Amino acid sequence: MRTALVLLFLLALAALPGALLPQRSLNLRAVDQFIEANGWWGEFLDRVQAFDVYASVWFSAVYLLLFVSIVGCLVPRTAEYAKALRAQPVLTPRNLARLPHHDTADDTRTPDEVVAAAKGVLRGWRTVERTEDDGARTISAEKGYLRETGNLLFHFAMLGLIVALAIGKMINYEGQVIVLANGSQFCNAGTLGYDSFRPGLRVDGTELTPFCLRVNDFRADYLPSGVADQFTAGIDYQSGDDLETGTWRPYRLQVNSPLRTEGDRVYLLGHGYAPVFTVTFPNGETRTQTIQWRPVDQLTLLSEGATKFDPPGVTDPAERRTKQLAITGLFAPTQIVHGGVLSSSFPDLTDPGVAVDVMRGDLGIDSGRGQSIFEIDQSLVDSGRLTRVARQNLSLGDAITLDDGTVVKFSGVERWVSLQVSHDPAQPWVLGFAVAMLIGLGVSLTVKRRRLWVRARPGDAGRTVVTVGGLARTDQAGYGEEFSRIAAALRPGKE
């Protein structure tokens, strides 16, 4: 047990970096920023897996050693406890007056009557009657076996919790996706539908729980200070037989009220804005793009992003790579401009505006390499393959006319919501084992192991000498009062 306690302390100590440092599984961008800002120190922490604490070799080693230690502790303790349950209470000590709690009194009853009365007082105790060589009658009594039961329950539940967490990490998955709140849909059909996806060790993404969501609207309530009060997304969903019948069921999705369907949970994580840009090309063709932009200020929802366009009617790849457009910059839901610099004064959509750079040239989208939807490839700008052709602040409905006659219009704003889908079939087991741990801990802390002996020995003049002794097997706190109460009940006239 001492080893298990040391390992528990080491496990808590090993988890500290996971709480103090950004973790790759949660925020890759924050990890990259931390490493860049801290130089060699950040690189050293990365080499020792400080940004992947819960998947690191050293954390796993402590975890496994704790598992082995608990098993090694529980097996012999369970065997000893089973043996103790079958054993009878120990013999009555020869001199009860040496015990921490003792009491002696003369009684007019016979030893048999005293023993019979004692059995009634000790109802609920495990008792054994014995007769000594000098004719004295004794009772050995013991109580508090549930203390060890609670202790074992706590540790077995901890063992079960560790196993359930391990199984959950193997078969669970978690993914995040951004969905426009304009009737757009998301279906849990595969990993390609997610913006980010973290599978368990035994999940390959081909057998996800099938369901579909449709985000109809989103409402954010703010306090006058701009602090969010409540987020609510109106969604419809299909799962199970509804997928066959085409039935949509409504649900009001809130931050602390996830949708639970088919064993999966859908959480509302956050929200933002997607400015709508309409580009009219020189040949008269019009294209509209609605792409989510990323908040850079969570208080005012000032956002940054990049909306990209391919020119229509251009079939030559080389020519197309000279005419691709990207609209980058900042979006403010409630714009405020100081010295030509756009900012936002409130997170709600009251007076939207954008400050954009219109870039023309090669966006790199034909290279086959993935790139962020929130930004352009800076290396293409540095190499001159992508150049800025316009810069301007736009209010809703404003437009820019480029040198080749292309018109870029800020034509609208949509809201988007960030959803997280979590699948963990082991979660009910984790909850059950956690509750069992609390019950076991409560029992082991409240129940006291104690022993009590009664000896009724024939005395002078036909009287009986009754001696009572008590011993607490654990903490003695509170046993003195219980012993005094039992001893008083065994005195003459207390039947």
From TrEMBL:
Keywords: Cytochrome c-type biogenesis, Membrane, Transmembrane, Transmembrane helix. Coiled coil: none annotated. Pfam families: ResB. Residues 1-483 form the ResB-like domain. The keyword Transmembrane helix applies. It comes from the Bacteria. The chain crosses the membrane at residues 53-75, 152-171, 429-447. InterPro entries: Cyt_c_bgen_Ccs1/CcsB/ResB, ResB-like_domain. The lineage of its organism: Bacteria, Bacillati, Actinomycetota, Actinomycetes, Pseudonocardiales. It is found in: Membrane. This is Cytochrome c biogenesis protein ResB. It is a multi-pass membrane protein. Its main location: membrane.
